[in-house]
Specification:
metal ion binding; binds 2-oxoglutaric acid; alpha+beta; binds fe (ii) ion; 7-stranded mixed beta sheet; Jelly Rolls; 311 residues; iron; 4-stranded antiparallel beta sheet; 13 strands; dioxygenase
């Protein structure tokens, strides 16, 4: 299996400075769109999130997963993909938490308080700071995609108003047997856009258009950006919601975290008129994201989006 040829984009330094480098910004918007159309994902260098904060986050999450099972299990949430998950028979190596709106300090504090009733202000600060920075980055990428499609600014502003986020924290244990090493089952993300960050233990794989699994070698300082179903539908299928999974080959634990931006409860996804033409006939009817999400949760299927919203 070859390493995937995923583009590496650089948002560091002044690349994102629109005032000084208008051309650079436009060029980058085009590259983002191309990566999302061709691969549905890309690797990203971005220096506005300090390495020290990443390191702090990785240390803090190790402490979180090291808490007793009994404590971690206290985190229950009726919404799917939030509650503490551990010891799932399908993916026994995987453990995770999903925190809604960790970008709100009170939400980060509430989660922290549950895990450390005696208090752990450093954890809630790191969680809040990292999720806020990742959400900002997530929105910047969405803005670039909107600009590359020549959408009016008001469309992007409406998207931001109608968006919410989940911050997911994940751990993958070392497989006890080499042939039982699936960390996370193959899936497309259902949300709009995901920005992931990991420790130095590789394991992410993406499926190419030809249907081959390829591993993604994520450089130490890089982020991984993944297009989800909501953005695929909005773009009338122009952007690819890439299928991905995690396979554990290393003999060290893998930690990852990510910010998943997604439409708010009640928000509609509707293909803009500008993205429908002769070569791109309408593929998806307007739908409420929350309804699609519920449909997926009760009818888990690889083709959920096509079945639910395809015209
Ligand atoms: O851990 C990773 O790198 C991938 C996680 C992922 O794909 C997900 O949570 O949807
Ligand atoms: Fe995913």
């Amino acid at each position: 299996m070859d390493g995937a040829k995923i583009p590496v984009l650089d948002f560091s330094g002044e690349h994102l400075d629109r005032e000084r480098g208008g051309e650079c910004w436009e060029l980058l918007c085009g590259k983002v769109r191309e990566a999302c159309e061709t691969h549905g994902c890309f690797l990203l260098m971005y220096d506005k999130i300090p390495t020290s904060l990443r390191e702090d986050m990785l240390v803090a999450m190790k402490a979180l997963f090291d808490l007793p099972e009994e404590t971690k299990s206290k985190y229950q949430n009726p919404k799917p993909y939030r509650s503490y998950q551990g010891k799932c028979p399908v993916v026994p190596l995987h453990e995770s938490f999903g925190i809604d709106d960790a970008t709100r300090l009170e939400a980060a504090q509430e989660f922290t308080q549950l895990m450390w009733p005696q208090g752990n202000p450093a954890f809630s600060e790191i969680l809040n700071s990292m999720s806020s920075k990742l959400l900002k980055l997530n929105f910047t990428i969405l803005e670039m995609i909107f600009e590359s499609f020549r959408m009016e600014k008001k469309n992007y502003d409406a998207l931001v108003r109608d968006s919410t986020s989940i911050f997911r924290i994940m751990k993958y244990k070392v497989p006890p047997r080499k042939d039982e090493n699936l960390g996370l089952v193959a899936h497309t993300d259902k949300n709009a856009l995901t920005v992931l960050c990991q420790n130095d233990v590789q394991g992410l794989e993406v499926m190419t258009k030809e249907g081959r699994w390829e591993h993604v070698v994520v450089p130490r300082e890089a982020f991984v950006v993944i297009v989800g179903d909501a953005l695929k539908a909005w773009s009338n299928g122009r952007l690819v919601a890439v299928k991905h999974r995690v396979v554990m080959k290393a003999d060290r634990e893998r930690y990852s975290f990510g910010l998943f931006s997604m439409p708010k409860e009640g928000a509609m996804i509707e293909v803009p008129r500008e993205l429908v033409d002769k070569e791109h006939p309408l593929l998806y009817r307007p739908f409420k994201f929350a309804d699609y999400f519920s449909y997926f949760v009760s009818n888990i299927s690889d083709d959920a989006l096509e079945i639910y919203a395809g015209v």
